[in-house]
Amino acid sequence: MKLKKTTALMGTALLMVALTACGANNNKTAAENEKPSNTATTETNDATNEAANSTENTPAAAEPVTLTVLNEGAVGIGVGLVDDLLVTKEKELKDGGTDIAYTPGSQFEGAAFGLYYQKFISTKLKEKNISVKTEDWGWGEPLIQKETAGFLAKNIPDIIVGETQMPGFAQQGLLEAFPDDMAAEIREKLAPAAWKPMEIDGKIYGLASQPGVSSLFWNKKLVKEAGLDPEKAITTWAELVDNAKKVTDAGKGKFYGGGVYGAPNFGGYLRYGALVAINGGTFADANGLPTFNSDANVEVIELLRALNANHPAGLMLNNNEGTYFDAWNKGQLAYLIDGPWRAQECKNVGLECGMAPIPLSPNGKPGNVTIGAAFHSVPVDAKNKEAAFDYIRAMYSTEVQQLIADSNTRSPILKEIAETDDYKTKHPEMYLHYQAMVGNVQGLPTFAKDNSKAWQIFGDAAVKSLMTDGDIKAIMDDAQKRAELVTK
């Protein structure tokens, strides 16, 4: 679907002065008096052409547009007109003693990130007479409910944001496809993790300016206490299970091998979804129908069962993911599959951590699932679509992407920054993360019908498989049958 451009038209009036021959010259014949002066005609035409050309070459002034954008917590600075919020936020940071000085290309830490992120975008939009007003609709399930209600009422912001729900909105025809030239630019210049999960039938419907994908992290101290080489990255699922067991045995109830958060919620699906992708599995097919009992999926559940045995009882399946990551931060788990922010978090809590690509299954290939990816999209009912796409273009501008690179908590999506020797040298861990973003990356699927119920069926089956010694294939076969009933 092509974007229809709306431009402000300014009416322009040209004053045309007709020059005629003066009849007061009695020395000229009647014919000469009636004939206009060639010089006057030339000057008149030149003046007219110059005025016309000047008008044609002067761009029409754009009418002011106020763009409504849902606030993303990672880069938000509050709710209201961004220009006003920038002034308030800057004063707040300075009064609090925060050094907000930032020079592109230099290390930059957290507190003022949102300030500069929004300032760079606001500056670009001002060139087109666009101002931004933010709204906060929350995150997770509350956000999904509000967005769904907004679509039904046709009362929706110009840009919405979300994670797992966004592909489903696109499939339902609720989002505007990116203009073809913009989509081509994105494919050429940006890492696939930023847009690939939002590509449907060859069209792009959303962009994340700083998506995450998962890597393997390990606590070097615990690994060493188990008699393992803390500097050696493991590369296979067999090594992961074997090393996790050795750490658990060495910990004697004080610390454990760990592995991955596996609760029946999106926090769990997003993390071990990477293992599903690596092993060639899927949660659903291209039509949104379940594929729960595939051989590839059963092998992933078998791995999760083995890893669950190397956790404190109930921790891996705890629905409160904060409890799980608190155990990691306290040095109670040795291995963890998680997003790129974990590298900085390790430093913040005083853990010496290793980081490497996720180990592969025997026949697996590198793959990943976006995590912590705030996809921005333009609803079909948005009032200011062209301005909304201008906002998204600003999200992958050099200024914004350099800021993300300098923050060292996510890697930039802009190839011209991320694929340089300078970035690789300054940010080796985030460069490793970037490499994962340019590979086989996908998002979690949306089921054809009753999405929440289908995920619940899968989650219940996964928990049953991990908490019992029942036949995993039989458990997943039963889940497949029940899921088919609600999705067809």
TrEMBL record:
<feature type="compositionally biased region" description="Low complexity">
    <location>
        <begin position="38"/>
        <end position="60"/>
    </location>
</feature>
<keyword id="KW-0813">Transport</keyword>
<dbReference type="Pfam" id="PF01547">
    <property type="entry name" value="SBP_bac_1"/>
</dbReference>
<feature type="signal peptide">
    <location>
        <begin position="1"/>
        <end position="23"/>
    </location>
</feature>
<protein>
    <submittedName>
        <fullName>Extracellular solute-binding protein</fullName>
    </submittedName>
</protein>
<comment type="similarity">
    <text>Belongs to the bacterial solute-binding protein 1 family.</text>
</comment>
<keyword id="KW-0732">Signal</keyword>
<dbReference type="InterPro" id="IPR006059">
    <property type="entry name" value="SBP"/>
</dbReference>
<feature type="region of interest" description="Disordered">
    <location>
        <begin position="28"/>
        <end position="60"/>
    </location>
</feature>
